[in-house]
């Protein structure tokens, strides 16, 4: 088999990143645009494994290494700070993303498709429909990725477009409550791990105004256990110091109650977060009666404070 290129996402990609990488590979193949292999850097989450299982997609389709002299397609990210495994940014030929503040100027050879939507899976699903190559398996992958990224259409990033595309996936598979609950319950399995794994399972790095910022996020159906775990604070401190980060916040989302809890452990991070939201911490936790997402709330507000010094 001649390999024409590779499809990369960030390290420890979520369901959107993994499912879209698989779907783009299928789309390219079906359209006769070449053999692009989806690459997995890091680990699959329990939720993604659940989805791959239902879709009857073998996780062996995801390769773990790639040739650096071949074209690269990026999916679900175009921020260099999240791509330490990407050695040559000039090899990136195409980008499919839905995140703000990408490193647009770095990817000089890439066609960039970046949309303000809840999941990039919505766009890939549309592309598969247009090319008449959406199958049941890929409808399960992409429909699940939309549900996952929009937290079942409750996240502030959700758009009508995501809902419309999901309704197309519904024609192929019954995404019933039991299936979706099963998906989200997978996320709670991370709580069996130690604090470091909990913090790093979905932690992204941002370089904002030359300051290294780390935003860890976790989405759970039950948050009581993690919020009472005192070890989490010392582990945040260790991580922040080891990673030489200027700012660190841990965003704990309760999917059931539609709440967010921001945890900061040091004075600088607390101070910045207080400026972002115009309110104060109680101890190390700031509680919100709504879901905050890294992409739609935290990164834009953090950029505003660090770049414009918003008070
Ligand atoms: Mn995504």
Account of the 3D structure:
The protein has 311 residues and is of the alpha/beta class. It has two domains: 5-185, inorganic pyrophosphatase (n-terminal core); 193-308, Diaminopimelate Epimerase, Chain A, domain 1, CATH 3.10.310.20. Helices cover 39% and strands 17% of the residues. It is built from eleven helices and ten strands. It has helices at 15-30, 46-54, 120-130, 136-149, 160-169, 177-188, 195-200, 224-228, 231-242, 267-277, 294-308; strands at 5-8, 36-38, 72-75, 92-97, 111-114, 203-208, 211-220, 247-254, 259-263, 285-288. The chain has a five-stranded parallel beta sheet with strand order 2-1-3-4-5, covered by helices on one side. Helix 1 links the parallel strand 1 (5-8) and strand 2 (36-38). Helix 3 (120-130) packs across helix 5 (160-169) and helix 10 crosses helix 11. The longest helix has 16 residues, at 15-30. The radius of gyration is 19 Å and the shape is globular. The termini are far apart. Bound molecules: manganese (II) ion.
The residue ranges in which pLDDT falls below 50 over 5 or more consecutive positions are: none
User: What is the CATH top level name of the largest domain?
Assistant: Alpha Beta
Question: Portion of residues in helices?
Answer: 25-40%
Largest sheet: 5 strands, parallel
